[in-house]
């Protein structure tokens, strides 16, 4: 499912114009992005958490030139799904 389909689905279910739903969805995503840029985590109960993870400095190798490099410590955005959400997905799709 892509963003456009999500907007259309919400619009149909709520009887709100596509433009209004698109505006809300865009602003929702921007708020999450801005919070993560500031280093703040975003917690959505019953859904999951958008968190900022810190990666430690590590040694790596460029395979083509066999050159060793150091990848500096850095932060990355991540999503951690909540337990009830994870269980709901695994029940629908058993391995």
Tell me about this structure:
This protein is of the alpha+beta class and 95 residues long. It has two domains: 40 residues; 54 residues, IHF-like DNA-binding proteins (HU Protein, Chain A, Irregular), CATH 4.10.520.10. 44% of the residues lie in helices and 31% in strands. The strands form two sheets. The protein has a three-stranded antiparallel sheet. A hairpin with a 3-residue loop joins strand 1 and strand 2. Helix 1 crosses helix 2. The protein is elongated, with a radius of gyration of 19 Å. The model has no long low-confidence stretch (mean pLDDT 93).
CATH superfamily of the largest domain: IHF-like DNA-binding proteins
Rounded to the nearest angstrom, the radius of gyration is 19 Å
Order of helices and strands: HHEEEEEH
**CATH-derived topology of the largest domain:** HU Protein, Chain A
Structural class: alpha+beta
Short description:
The chain has 95 residues and is α+β, with helices and mostly antiparallel strands. It is 44% helix and 31% strand.
């Amino acid at each position: 499912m892509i963003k456009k389909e999500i907007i259309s689905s919400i619009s149909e279910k709520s009887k709100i114009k596509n433009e209004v739903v698109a505006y809300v969805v865009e602003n929702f995503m921007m708020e999450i992005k801005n919070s993560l840029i500031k280093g703040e985590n975003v917690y959505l109960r019953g859904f999951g958490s958008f968190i900022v993870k810190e990666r430690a400095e590590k040694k790596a190798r460029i395979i083509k030139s066999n050159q060793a490099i150091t990848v500096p410590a850095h932060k990355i955005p991540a999503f951690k799904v909540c337990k009830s959400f994870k269980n709901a997905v695994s029940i629908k799709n058993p391995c």
